[in-house]
């Protein structure tokens, strides 16, 4: 538990008490943890793996709001404001979670100001990220949006060697397009275009990005 960023301020005593109310659960890739508009009663912390949070229209088309990975938490909104789930959550790869019952989560927020502050800071980060995304969708062209999304993944979990960054992405092309707010055909077009000028190279795990080409203004 002491490795979970949300609990970094807790004493050994508090961590021991926390371990009594946390459950450890594993879910297979593809499992839907909850759907938008359902009542919320569980808070999730990812120990390993990743999850996509998305909203969808009546035709089943998805817009991915965020991808969470190890150390991240989600499911707090409906527990805090008592309203239904604001989005759906689906496991992208076999993943392990710590879960807390809603009532226990609220009790912790009341008892632990440092933990409440960490949750508030995370909410601030998400509003800023959402504002950036609204800006991009309004003012930025599709090609730049795709590149910006790849750079976000590169910053979060890219492995750098020299001028190249290997980006591991648990999303398929459909999902990546939905995250960048472009159609799959636009995404494929942008990827092919960037491959042609050797900025990007699609790999089985994701992409590799050549920083020297990016800096020289090739994109
Ligand atoms: P909740 O509404 O309980 O269930 C869906 C969860 O997805 C929500 O809590 C947040 O944890 C998360 N979520 C919803 N919207 C966003 C967003 N725009 N950015 C990041 N996470 C979100």
From TrEMBL:
It holds the Pfam family cNMP_binding. GO terms for cellular component: cytosol. GO terms for molecular function: DNA-binding transcription factor activity. InterPro entries: cNMP-bd_CS (IPR018488), cNMP-bd_dom (IPR000595), cNMP-bd_dom_sf (IPR018490), Env_Response_Regulators (IPR050397), RmlC-like_jellyroll (IPR014710), WH-like_DNA-bd_sf (IPR036388), WH_DNA-bd_sf (IPR036390). Keywords: Activator. The keyword Cell membrane does not apply. SUPFAM superfamilies: cAMP-binding domain-like, Winged helix' DNA-binding domain. It comes from the Bacteria. Residues 6-126 form the Cyclic nucleotide-binding domain. CDD domains: CAP_ED. This is Crp/Fnr family transcriptional regulator. It comes from Paenibacillus antri.
